Every structure is written in structure tokens, then in C-alpha cells.
Amino acid sequence: MRICIHRGTKQIGGTCIELEARGSRLVLDIGLPLETELSSVDLPPVSGFLKYDPSLLGIFISHPHLDHYGLAQKLQTNPSILIGSAAFKIINAANRFLPNKIIFDNVIEVFNQMPITLGPFTLTPYLVDHSAYDSYGLLVEADGKRLFYSGDFRGHGRKGKLLDRIISSPPDNIDVLLMEGSTLGRFDTDTDYPSESALEEKFCEVFQNTSGMVLVWCSGQNIDRLVTIYRACRHSGRQFVADMYTASILRAIENPKLPIPGWKGFRVYLPWFQKQKIIKQELFEFAKSFKKWRIYPEQLKSEAEKSVVLFRPSMVKDLEKADCLDGAKLIYSLWSGYLKDDRYQPLLGWLNEKNISIIHCHTSGHAPVADLKRFSEAIAPKKLVPIHTFEAARFSELFQNVEQKKDGEWWDV
Ligand SMILES: [Zn+2]
Ligand SMILES: [Zn+2]
Questions:
Q1: Which of 32, 103, 99, 37 is nearest to 68 (CA)?
Q2: How far does residue 12's CA lie from ligand 2's centre (Å)?
Q3: What DSSP line would sit under 152-171, residue for residue?
Q4: How far is the CA of 294 from the centre of ligand 2 (A)?
Q5: What is 178-227 written as a DSSP string?
Q6: pLDDT grade, residue 187 (50/70/90)?
Q7: Which of 53, 198, 211, 286 could form a disulfide with 327 if both were Cys (CB 3.0 to 4.6 A apart)?
Q8: Is the predicted pLDDT of residue 338 greater than 90, yes or no?
Q9: What percent of the chain has pLDDT over 70?
């Protein structure tokens, strides 16, 4: 088996790996690099991306984060896409609201530890804990060799036990481990790795100590975080007000354990920006399906003190118009680095002007070094190759058997 990391040996995001065995090929992830316009980046040079090539057997997508599947929008062919079924549902649900739709119509759904054979490759997905729902690592066997791709993972989320499970019964005889290292260097600013349950307590405290509305700015696809916020709402007697996009993501997953409209205190708000998308695409039946639980702009003021409202910057005008911000606070529940971005400075100015204090309440989607060590020591690969990191050079100080590779270089597993 041969391998080429087209992108990922020296950066976080935009991951794309090509594997070749006996003339057949398989791709792991087809990511859009972070903070990059789709138009400014080309597909990696993989035969079968621009023109049909039967030797390309499929593309495995480890999880529904754009830095792992965003470049699929540029495919000129229709290869098989291997992806978790819930991840597939999330991408479909998000299509209603996102500017660039990604439509997969040739999908092979994958499930935890259920092997799939594709030509010379046997693939075994391992469900992992990450800030994206339905995320997988992958064991690839071909030509008598065994490779493990970690995907993005951590052990301090709501599915943290999955990491302990892999560590206690790891795949054995691994020739090559491709392991992510997002938290090395770049994420040092978020050195704290509280669990989601610890966050729940912090959210609860803020909800109880705020006289007006609580706004929470988080990703509509960070399902662990949404559960954390919903639970904190229940404990503090506030209602959980999700925008229609987020409510539709939760509903699409069809997991009876996840909060959806219809659960106690779950309300749905349709911000102006999302309303325009509904009108443009004539999604009136879809919008109607949330009718029973809607909270309308004119109700926001009178219900402010008992509400936690999921926030996004495009909602500033909605909130201003609804005059519902007396005594409000904003919880920022994303990576702290994004806030330094120029495009958010006007928003920070607006919050300041409205006297809305910002509280940072977040935990990383990625494993800290201690967990990366536990993981790599359990797998004990013959060769550990850094991926999805800005600090590949530091791997050899921290882990055993490290071999750094270059983007675009082919090598034998
Ligand atoms: Zn990633
Ligand atoms: Zn990710």
C-alpha cells in the first residue's frame, strides 16, 4: 500500500490523503483549508476528481466539518462517498441554509466498527469523540499492511468514553498511524480542556446570574454543546431558543436522545437572515413544521429574562429591533482566536455600546497532548506520521517513532 498526503502535513484543515493498493485508490477526506475562499483553492491532483477514473473506489469523509469535506463541492465526477449516516443527514439539513450546497448522491453509509471491503481495501471505521457529530477514525487494511487514520478526536466531550475504549482495545499491528495534532501550538491559547459537563455548570451559573436575555454564540453543528446548553436551560428554568437552522440540524439527526422542538422549553426563532433563505427557496412547508414552537420577534422582549437565545452575528439587527437586550449577556462558545478577526470588531463594538458583557465558555474539539500520548502509546505504531497540525516538528519530542512527511510526497506504508 502506498500513500500520499496531498494536504495536511503542515496545517490544520484541508486534509486530503490518497491511498493506493494493487492499482486501486481510495481518498480519506477532501477538506477545504481553514479561512480560505472556495474559489481560491484547487482540488488536490487526484485522478478521478476532475475526470472519471474507475480506479478511484471512493472518498471516505471522517466527519462533517468543512475542513474535511468542503472541497467536495469542486468534484467534477460522482465517486462513492463513505460517510456516517448521521453526518450525511447533517450535511443535507445544512444545505437549506448554507451558501454553498454540497449534494452527495452516491453514498455508502458507514457504521462503528463494521468493516467494509472496497477492492483491495478493508475499512473499519471507529466512532470517536469530537466537536462534530458522527466522527470516525479509520483502520485501512490492504496488501498485508495496516494503517490507522485518527481523524479529529478528543476524550473530554460527551462521548469521551470512546477514546478510553480505543485505548483499552486498540487495533493491533499498526504499521502507520496518521495522528492529528491540532492542540500543539496554535491552540495554546485555549489551554483549558473542561468536560462538557463542567461547561454545563458554568452555563447554568451565568443563566442564573443574568437579569435579562442570555445570548449564546456557538456552532449550530456542535451537537455536544447544544445538549450542554439545553440541559443548563432546564436546570436554570430558562427556555432554549434555537434558530431554525440549528433546530433543523438537531431534528435531522433522528437520535431520540437529542433535544428537538417538542421537548420541554424548546422554542424556535427564525432570524431575518434565515427567513430570506426560506422565502427564496420556497421552503414554506419546512418552516411550517416548526410552527407550534415558534417564538416571534415581538415576543422576544417580554420573554427575554426567561430565554437563552442561540446567537449569530447576522442576528444583530433582529435583536436591536426587538428591543430585548436590557440586562443581557453574551456567552461566547467558540475558539477564542476567531474573535480577534477583523470582521468581528464591529460586533464587539456593538456589544460594548449595548453594555452586553462577553463570557467565554468553551472547550476544545481536539485532544490535549496528554490524551494524544495515551492514544499513540496504546496504538503503538511502527511509524507515526503527523497530520492536521501546525506543529509537526514538535511531534518527535512528544511521541515515539515519528516520521514527518511532506505534502504531495508518495511513500510506502
Ligand atoms: Zn479538522
Ligand atoms: Zn473537525
A1: 32
A2: 9
A3: S-BSSSTTTHHHHHHHHSPP
A4: 31
A5: EEE-TTTTGGGG------HHHHHHHHHHHHHT-SS-EEEE--TT-HHHHH
A6: low
A7: 211
A8: no
A9: 99
What residues have their beta carbon closer than 5 A to ion ligand 1? Answer: 67, 152
199 closest CA partner among 368, 364, 369: 364
Using alpha carbons, list the distances in angstroms from residue 387 to 16, 65, 378, 406: 10, 16, 18, 10
Task: Specify the range with the lowest mean pLDDT, choosing from 63-72, 82-91, 337-346, 366-375.
Answer: 337-346
**Chain position carrying cell 435531522:** 252
Kindly give the distance from the C-alpha atom of residue 11 to the centroid of ligand 1, in angstroms, as a whole number. Answer: 10
Set of cell numbers at residue 133:
457529530
Burial class, 97, CB count within 10 angstroms (exposed 0-12 / middle 13-18 / buried 19+): buried
Separation of CA 118 from chain center = 26
Q: How far apart are CA 257 and CA 278, in angstroms?
A: 28
Indicate the residue type of 311.
Answer: F
Which region, left, alpha or beta, applies to residue 378 given φ > 0 means left and ψ of -120 to 50 means alpha?
alpha
pLDDT digits (tens, 9 = 90+) for 294-314: 999 999 999 999 999 999 999
DSSP per-residue string spanning 303-322? TGGGEEEEE-GGGHHHHHHH
CA 151 / ligand 1 centre spacing (Å): 8
Q: Which ligand is nearest to the CA of 130?
A: 2
Span from the CA of 68 to the centroid of ligand 2 (angstroms):
7
CA of 382 to the centre of ligand 1 (A): 24
Determine the distance separating the centroid of ligand 2 and the alpha carbon of 65, expressed in angstroms: 5
Helical ranges in 14-173 per DSSP H: 66-69, 85-94, 161-168
308 CA to centre of ligand 1 in angstroms: 29
68 Cα to the center of ligand 1, angstroms: 6
Q: Which residues contact 226 (CB under 8 A, 6 or more apart)?
A: 218, 220, 242, 246, 250, 258, 259
Query: Measured between alpha carbons, how far is residue 203 from residues 61, 180, 304, 310 in Å?
Result: 32, 29, 17, 13
Number of the ligand closest to the Cα of 7: 1
Q: How far apart are CA 339 and CA 159, in angstroms?
A: 27
What does the pLDDT look like over 93-105, one tens digit per residue?
A: 999 998 888 999 9
pLDDT the model gives residue 36: 86
- Please answer whether residues 45 and 4 qualify as being in contact, where contact means their C-beta atoms are separated by less than 8 angstroms: no
Q: Give distance in angstroms: CA of 43 to centre of ligand 2.
A: 19
Nearest to 355 by CA among 213, 208, 194: 213
How far is the centre of ligand 2, averaged over its atoms, from the C-alpha of 66 (Å)? 8
Rounded to whole angstroms, the Cα distance separating 286 from 97 reads 12
